[in-house]
């Protein structure tokens, strides 16, 4: 088979006009941005030392290394101290709450009450009318009275609580603020719902009454009612069962009594007693 041949296109006619060149435009050089400008050279005699950033932040100078280490460890110590203080405060508050709850539970279970006291009889010597007149008229004459009292301690209000009366207690009798005689309170243990009566021997020395007091006490003795004050200070411990008990706390009692005479066995009339007990602290 023979190939098909296409005729070639005719050539373009030549023109007599010369070829035109593209128009030329004038360009102005771009101004350099200030950020790309080189910094001015340093003045003569000035040097710039560039240190790597990691060395500036992490490697202190040798003379400051110890101080830097101490300052870096200070926040950790402060946090530890703050944590220890918080733990101690929380433990103290918890201990107080536990102690208060325990004391409240013991109080509700046992219902402790303070014992009561009274003076049943009183024997007086050395306060007769003649002795009172001599002491009030003479400045060198003094009184040395002796009193024997029968005291009644009542623990009947406590059904589950016993009372321990410790040593070093005292009983004193006074008239119008002037102490007449004093003696020791005996030490003994009183079970619940118990009433104990005991004798207390009291003595006074160098007692002096004013003329007004001697006149008034003589008039009251003639009327058959001489007011006296019996004051007691006794260290006491309460017992709850056989294990639980309190610290030793002072119990103060003041009883107002009146007697019909100041010589021999007197008839005592109790006018009331006031008992004061300090707050109790429990322990096992």
UniProtKB/TrEMBL annotation:
Location of the Late embryogenesis abundant protein LEA-2 subgroup domain: 151-255
Span list, region Disordered: 1-46
InterPro entries per the UniProt record, alphabetical: LEA_2, NDR1-like
Keyword Transcription attributed: no
Coiled coil: none
Membrane spanning residue stretches: 84-110
Assigned GO CC terms: membrane
Membrane topology note: Single-pass membrane protein
Keywords: Membrane, Transmembrane, Transmembrane helix
Location(s), subcellular: Membrane
Span of the signal peptide: none
Main location: membrane
Compositionally skewed regions (Low complexity) per UniProt: 14-34
GO biological process: defense response to other organism
Listed name of the protein: Late embryogenesis abundant protein LEA-2 subgroup domain-containing protein
């Amino acid at each position: 088979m023979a190939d098909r041949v296409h005729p070639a296109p005719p050539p373009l006619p030549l023109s007599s006009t010369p070829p035109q060149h593209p128009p030329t435009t004038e360009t102005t050089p771009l101004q350099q941005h200030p950020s790309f400008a080189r910094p001015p050279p340093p003045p003569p005699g000035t040097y710039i030392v560039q240190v790597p950033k990691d060395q500036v932040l992490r490697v202190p100078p040798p003379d400051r290394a110890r101080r830097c280490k101490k300052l870096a460890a200070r926040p950790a110590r402060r946090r530890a101290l703050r944590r220890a203080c918080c733990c101690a405060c929380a433990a103290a508050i918890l201990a107080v709450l536990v102690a208060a709850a325990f004391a409240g539970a013991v109080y509700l279970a046992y219902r402790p009450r303070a014992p009561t006291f009274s003076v049943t009889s009183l024997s007086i010597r050395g306060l007769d009318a003649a002795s009172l007149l001599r002491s009030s008229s003479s400045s060198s004459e003094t009184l040395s009275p002796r009193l024997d009292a029968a005291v009644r301690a009542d623990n009947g209000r406590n059904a589950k609580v016993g009372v321990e009366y410790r040593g070093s207690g005292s009983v004193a009798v006074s008239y119008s603020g002037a102490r007449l005689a004093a003696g020791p309170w005996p030490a003994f243990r009183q079970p619940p719902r118990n009433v104990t009566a005991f004798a207390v021997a009291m003595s006074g020395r160098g007692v002096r009454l004013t003329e007004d007091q001697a006149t008034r006490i003589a008039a009251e003795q003639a009327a058959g009612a001489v007011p006296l004050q019996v004051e007691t200070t006794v260290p006491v411990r309460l017992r709850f069962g056989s294990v639980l008990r309190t610290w030793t706390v002072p119990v103060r009692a003041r009883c107002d009594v009146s007697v019909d005479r100041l010589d021999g066995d007197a008839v005592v009339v109790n006018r009331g007693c006031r008992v004061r007990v300090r707050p109790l602290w429990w322990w096992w």
